[in-house]
Design goal:
The chain has 106 residues and is an alpha+beta fold. Helices cover 34% and strands 9% of the residues. Strands 1-2 form a two-stranded antiparallel ribbon. The chain is globular. The N and C termini lie far apart (32 Å).
């Protein structure tokens, strides 16, 4: 189990699935060298902002920029934000796991 209480088997499955940010599709940086921008740094994300839901459908990997922008906003609200508009993030461009979450929400 990692420090976010994600079991190692689940962590490994998600790492295989989410090589790119599930929102903006940038290649995730696993380790960011000192002095380099952390914008594309890989972060753990709760798709539905509930830390008690730790499963394959609610845990994802995204870049630090998207994670910071989303924060504690609801996915359906965040996907309509200026950040998403500016970065061409929408239901058609996100990863399948996010499309699935948006269909369930709506």
């Amino acid at each position: 189990m990692n420090k976010w209480k994600i079991p190692i088997e689940l962590e490994n499955e998600i790492r295989k699935r989410d090589i790119f940010c599930v929102y903006c599709n940038v290649m995730l940086d696993e380790k960011v060298p000192k002095g380099k921008s952390r914008k594309n740094a890989a972060t753990w994300e709760h798709i539905i902002n509930d830390a008690t839901i730790i499963n394959f459908d609610n845990i994802a990997r995204c870049c630090s920029a998207c994670n910071s922008s989303k924060g504690t906003k609801k996915l359906a609200d965040w996907i309509k934000s200026e950040y998403c508009k500016k970065n061409n993030i929408n239901i058609n461009t996100v990863a399948p796991i996010i499309k699935k979450a948006l269909r369930i929400i709506n």
